[in-house]
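Fold this sequence, please.
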Amino acid sequence: MIRILLSAVTTLVLVNGAFAQTPSKDEQVRQTVQSFYAAFNAHGFESAEKYTTEDWNHVNPFGGWTRGREAVLKELKEVHSTFLKGVSDTIEDMSVRFAAPDVAVVTVTSRMSTFTTPDRVRHENERHIRTFVVVKRSDRWLIMQDQNTVIGR
């Protein structure tokens, strides 16, 4: 009788575990990229270590290549305190492809609100395409690299 009871309990635990709501790999990667956009739109990158690697590389739409989380965050804080202050970037579409079990390539198209660059060029209703390389490190999906390009410039 005890064996039957233990077997039933074990089966219930396994069945409940199989149906538990854990995010898929795809969803975890999407959440990582969405964290970047949430920080962009809040103009606060204080918790970037939660969604970026220490060796994060960023290629901006003007062709600048910044290496390392500290340097990238310094650049982002500068532009978000000046010409990108108050600007939002809204995801329109996101595609996730896995290059390996622990490496995803994410392509995002987005639309930015109006802003004026330091050279006095006004950017209205501008669309961007950004490619992210997202890697799994210590059971977390983190952005290792991103490149941002203006669509149709």
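The longest helix spans residues 25-42. Residues 12-19 have pLDDT under 50 and may be disordered.
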